[in-house]
Amino acid sequence: MVRIPRGCVVLTTLLLLAGGCNNGKAPASDAALAECRIARDALRTENNRLQERVSLVQSQAADLQSQIDNLAIKNNELAQWSRQVAERFGPSVWFVGPDEKPLPYQSIRNASPQLLLRRLNDLFEQSHQPRATLQKIEGDTAFIHIEQQQHLTQEMGTTGATAYLQAITYTLTSLPSIQYVAFDFEAGDHAIPGRYSR
To answer: For the segment 73-102, what is each residue's pLDDT rounded down to a tens digit?
Structure first.
């Protein structure tokens, strides 16, 4: 069975009615022609209204795309600035600042990953946050196990958990040999494991 689009059916009906209206033989043809014109005008009005809506939506989509493009540029600039700041401090312990973003806390020349993590764990202990354990370093990735996982994933909130993971990531990636930190813990409401970078 061939399906005919609804618009074609309406248009065909209107044309047939109009054609029937133009032969001038039946007195009812004037009434039918008037109905055709009313239907046609209603369709034109609806089409114009829909066209205006389409134009408005297209304009809003273009504005949103422009905002997305601007945010992407700002995000790239911020990431570049962040890398430059981090490189300037060299091997450093990064800890959560007042706005819950990691800040350089202590610069340590010739620090090892173990020393940096030990100093960071001292800060975590003072602020009642979970302890992080360095499992291994493989290539450019440090593998970290989080103790008291439930505290991280369920009790610190998303912002707190994110800042905690960032503090570890920024601390370990302050070493030139480490580019990524792979976290090992069970996923929860506020944090998920995985491989992180600055």
So the answer is: 998 898 888 778 777 888 999 998 877 888
Considering the domain architecture, whether residues 106 and 183 belong to the same structural domain is answered as yes
One-letter identity of residue 131: R
Measure the CA angle with vertex 135, ends 131 and 136; round to 5°.
Answer: 140
Per the structure, the complete domain to which residue 60 belongs is given by 1-89
Residue 165 burial class via C-beta count within 10 angstroms: exposed 0-12, middle 13-18, buried 19 and up: buried
Tell me what pLDDT residue 182 has.
Answer: 96
The number of domains in the chain is 2
Burial of residue 22 (CB within 10 Å: 0-12, 13-18, 19+) is exposed
Q: Do 156 and 97 meet the contact criterion of CB atoms below 8 Å apart?
A: no
Residue range 44-52: mean pLDDT, rounded: 92
